[in-house]
Every structure is written in structure tokens, then in C-alpha cells.
């Protein structure tokens, strides 16, 4: 019986230590989430308005003159899969990887069979998974989260843009998690290149209604790369906030589960201790009765 009590005590001590770790990780993630959330909330309206403006411009009659908006038969595909560098964030990384595989299977299975689907991982988890499972991987930018900055993200965006212009890729999509709140992330595959065009509700292309100063070509040459770089940066900031939100939620649930386990272990310990005391009392009473009988 003493051995059983000792085992339960050790389990209670172990679960308590784990709970302290999960509570500490939750507090760290909450602090990081606050900064990441502020960054994406400030960035999102600006990036969305720029993207809306760019889509309207390339929807005009002269979009064929814009290299990054040219639509051609999709033979080669680049998928930018954004995960985190670390785990312990619930199903966050798994959902990104699952969506990437689903996108390949449903949209680019023929290209993948020919070896024409390239994964550009951002984050250690996507890099490790797709490398380990034999996908065609570009290993240039997977360490971005170790030094997250616009300049580092811009280099990844330029890589995709130059590959599209040079016809190394005919289609580029970004697969990431849109941050809603700490408990909610929306996993999405977003078209990146060619630049999506705005359409009316009847399916016809919508003509852009802009007055350009300076000339349209000069303006687009200057603005288009910056807008596209900003779009990738927004996706990375979304993913960063989503990661910390998912980890905070996961650690909160882990702490709650630890409480439930501790409650059950303490009940088990008290029952075992009560049984041991009862057994000892029974033995004492039986011994006393035997002495009296003798």
C-alpha cells in the first residue's frame, strides 16, 4: 500500500511541475501575442487597401502590359507555406500543412506528379515536414521568424516575383493563418501571382477608375513591387499573431487539463491513504482482540 501511495505522490508532483511550465508558457505567449496583435491590426487595413487598389488597376483594359498580372497556363506552381518555428501551439502547424497538401491534391495534383510544385516554407515546421516527405522545397527563407523584419520578408516576396516574371512559376499562392482572436484562426490559401483581378457580380471584369499622375506605367513600376511585398509581410504578421494565440490557448487548455488530473490524483491518493489507515486500524484491533483472547 505504501508503494501505491508513493507512486501517486510522484505523479501529483510531476503533474504540478508540468502545470507550472504550461502556466508560464501561457503568460509568455500572452505577452508576445499582445505585440503581434498590435502589429497586424495596424498593418491589415493598409495592406488590404493597397491590394484592393492594385487589383482594380490590373483589372483595366491594359493589364496585358503588366508582367506580374499575366495569366498563362499553369505548369509550374510555387506555394508559400507559413508555419511557426516551434511547436506546443495545438493544431496550428498541422492545419497549415494539411491545407497545403489539400491545395496540391485538389488544384495542382497534375503539376505535383510532374515535379512542378515547389514549396517555399516560412517557418521551421513547414521546412522540416516538406523536406522530410520528399516535396520539392526551396530552403532560402525558412528562418525568417528568427529575425522577423520587413526586409527579410521582402526578399522572399522578391524571390516569388522574379520567379514568376522569369516563368519559373506560373502560379503563386500563400498558405497561412489569418488572425481573428486568440482562440480563432482562419486557415486560407490566398492567390498571390498573377495579381488577382476584380470582377463584377455578373462575372465580368471591373474597369479601373483612376487618374494617374505620373504616367500609369511609371507609377506601377514603382508601386507594384512594394504592394506585393506588403502583402507577403501582412501574411507573415498574421501567421505570427496566430501562432502566439494558438500557443496561449493550447497552454491554457493544458493547465486546465492538469487541474483535472490533479483533482483525480488527489482523490485517488486520499482513498488509498484512507484504505491504508483503515487496514492498519483493523490490524491493531484484531491484534488487541487476539491478546485479550489469549
In words, what does this structure look like?
- The protein has 294 residues and is α/β, with parallel strands linked by helices.
- The chain has 6 helices and 5 strands, in the order αβααβαβαββα.
- It has helices at residues 2-58, 92-107, 109-113, 124-132, 150-165, 216-293; strands spanning 77-82, 117-122, 136-137, 171-181, 184-193.
- It is elongated, with a radius of gyration of 29 Å.
Question: Notable features of this structure?
Answer:
single chain; 294 residues; alpha/beta; 6 helices; elongated
Q: Would you tell me the structural class of the helices and strands?
A: alpha/beta
For the biggest β-sheet, the strand order reads 3-2-1-4-5
Radius of gyration: 29 Å
Number of strands: 5
Instruction: Please report the distance between the alpha carbons of the first and last residues.
Output: 30 Å
Draw up the topology in text.
Blueprint (H helix, E strand, L loop, with lengths): L1 H57 L18 E6 L9 H16 L1 H5 L3 E6 L1 H9 L3 E2 L12 H16 L5 E11 L2 E10 L22 H78 L1
Parallel strand pairs: 1-2, 1-4, 2-3
Antiparallel strand pairs: 4-5
Helix pairs in contact: 1-6, 5-6
Concise summary:
The protein is of the alpha/beta class and 294 residues long. The chain contains 6 helices and 5 strands.
